[in-house]
Design brief:
- The mean pLDDT is 84.
- Helices cover 62% and strands 6% of the residues.
- The chain has one domain.
- The protein has 65 residues and is mainly α.
- The protein has a two-stranded antiparallel ribbon.
């Protein structure tokens, strides 16, 4: 699964969180593209991977609101 702007907006609406534009760009750059591991193999993040990583990165922003 690749994270899209629409998908990220849906997640943020469900979590009722607002994030700075630079963090949004960082998340889309990191999870919106295929990833390479150390051996050069290409893999996609699972939906669970994306949600968990977003949760970890968004937690500080939730506390500020």
């Amino acid at each position: 699964m690749l994270l899209t702007k629409k998908g990220l907006n849906t997640i943020l609406e469900n979590l009722r969180v607002r994030i700075p534009a630079e963090l949004e760009k960082e998340l889309l750059d990191e999870y919106g593209n295929l990833a390479n591991d150390d051996a050069g193999h290409i893999f996609e993040y699972t939906e669970q991977d994306i949600y968990e990583q977003l949760r970890k990165k968004l937690c500080p922003h939730e506390k500020n609101q």
